[in-house]
Amino acid sequence: MAFIQWVLIALVVILSAGPTWSVPSIIQMRPEKDTLLDADVRRKSDHLFCSSWRFTVETNDAGAWTRVPARCVDFVKEYITGDLYASELEAVAANAAEYARAIGVSGDGRDAWVFDIDETLLSNVHYYAVNGFGSQIFDEYSFNEWVELREAPAIIPGLRLYKELQKLGFTLFLLTGRGEYQRHATERNLMYAGFANWEKLIVRGNTDKGKPASVFKSEKRKEIEDAGYIIHGSSGDQWSDLMGFALARRSFKLPNPLYYIA
Amino acid sequence: MAFIQWVLIALVVILSAGPTWSVPSIIQMRPEKDTLLDADVRRKSDHLFCSSWRFTVETNDAGAWTRVPARCVDFVKEYITGDLYASELEAVAANAAEYARAIGVSGDGRDAWVFDIDETLLSNVHYYAVNGFGSQIFDEYSFNEWVELREAPAIIPGLRLYKELQKLGFTLFLLTGRGEYQRHATERNLMYAGFANWEKLIVRGNTDKGKPASVFKSEKRKEIEDAGYIIHGSSGDQWSDLMGFALARRSFKLPNPLYYIA
Question: Which has the least CB within 10 A, A27, A90, A165, B255?
Fold first, then answer.
């Protein structure tokens, strides 16, 4: 075989190995402009990053945070308007109902359940949909306007659980970080959304101002216990609904990647 | 236009609307046998169900459970051997490291961190891979054989966090549900996997038998506190590592859909 033929064969072998055969991946060439593949890779990497971010948020590993990371805003939007959020809400309500059914309610009205309101019984997704899906710093003024509209719809699995607990004989307490000045609008909204016959709606009073939610809510649960109730269960979308003292026998954490309350 | 032409146009319009235009979805016809589409729909529905199940497990909403639901075994296998588990472990370790760096370690050796071992520092995924990925009831006998092999590899983000905490000056306690009879194998395994210089390895002694992990671990954290240490952080894959009393100032929940320990 002629020398030129060997050279050609060698060239074919080298070229077949592709352009990456000797280039360390760290200096691998990337196309100058976005290609479809590139966009796909970035989307996949964003999804992995944002799924992991959501894990740390829902387990309270992330600690305090003020807004959804910029690269996760689309992820949060898709999640909160999609099947998974709905399915998770159903799953948590099913866990709570199963637990509640196994409790022998005494019938003396002392068996209690504590519900948070926002993102637990009422959904503010409509508000967050026009306010950047958690990407903006919380704005008290515009949120108060939304509260005054009284248009937050019920979270359906929450409403179903609420009604089943009532049938089972539980006394229901609503414990919210909303203020006394929002009590009337909140009551109206709850009623429009289908909630009725709660024992007490507990809001932040003047003396509760400035307290972290976990402290305010623990103090109020303590008052409920001191009044003779047994808090069997507690439902909330924030860990500050479910941590601290005077805890319920079991707590049910609902998903919420939109905002964090200490 | 002739009548027949109008009829044909109407037919085209009706057929374009597809076969579902007037059939309520609840009585929609399904193919008798699995088609590719059907398998795809089932896969999607399993994924939704199992993602939601995993949410309830990782937030402790599910309460006690003994094995992965049958329809989620493939899901758990894909998750635990895939990118997401690795990415979540990295994210939690990053949260913990960020928190630890912000603590002004005093230098007197009293600043402490408590680590669980299994699925926190050492990975038993090799064991679970040949034992049904959480689909089988826990078998103490075969798990003990695996422990005696001393071959559990380090969870890399856990090892990196461990080493960084040591550099920062934290005193490290290892607090595990493993028994006194497993102490030697556990020490060897930890050392082979790259862990060194822990302050104390706390295992279940004779007087701890039968206690729920959350009680045993709370009692041991209390002893650490009573000895003058401040437990700044605690890392564990089970809520029973992170609940009860004598809690760390911040707790870091690692993912684990393979098993539940009360």
Answer: A27
Residue with tokens 């719809």: A153
Residue of A nearest to B61 (CA): A252
Share of chain A above pLDDT 70, in %: 86
Question: Which residue of chain B comes nearest to A255, CA vs CA?
Answer: B55
Share of chain B above pLDDT 70, in %: 86
Q: Dump strand ranges (E) for B77-185.
A: 111-115, 171-179
Identify the residue whose tokens are 């597809």: B18
Between CA A182 and CA B210 the distance in angstroms is 50
Instruction: Report helix, strand or coil for A88.
Output: helix
Interface residues of B toward A, Cβ cutoff 8 Å, are: 48-49, 51-53, 55-56, 58-63, 83-84, 87-88, 90-92, 95-96, 99, 250-253, 255
Place of tokens 């559990």: B152
Which helix or strand (DSSP H or E) is residue A110 part of? none
Amino acid, single-letter form, for residue B29:
M
Quote the ipTM score.
0.86
Instruction: With H, G, I as helix, E, B as strand and everything else as coil, classify residue A235.
Output: strand
Residue pair A94/A165 in contact by the 8 Å Cβ criterion: no
